[in-house]
Amino acid sequence: MTFPSDGGSYIILSPIELSIRRKIEAVGKPLKDWDVQINYGIKTGCNEAFIITTEKRDELLVQCQTEEERQRTAELIRPFNPYSTNGYS
User: Fold this and answer.
1) What is the pLDDT of residue 73?
2) What is the spatial distance between Cα 21 and Cα 18, in angstroms, rounded to a whole number?
3) Cβ-based neighbours of 35, under 8 Å, separated by 6 or more
4) pTM flag (> 0.85)
5) Which runs of consecutive H residues, i.e. helices, occur in the chain?
């Protein structure tokens, strides 16, 4: 393992992930070069805030105004399984 001597950040990626990153960087435009003002950076949210009880899920579904909204909402709220590799299956 080599360490960045220029104070750069560490990147821990598999060879395929590193290849994908390099391809994206070769054709992509960094956010700093976009003609936009980003005030807070990219937010991912607080993961714990999105873990809700079954009772809360049911409460949210009851508040939906239409059957279509209820179906869309139900599809977004997935069961959480902390023992799975992706969290919900």
Assistant:
1) 92
2) 5
3) none
4) no
5) 15-27, 54-62, 67-76
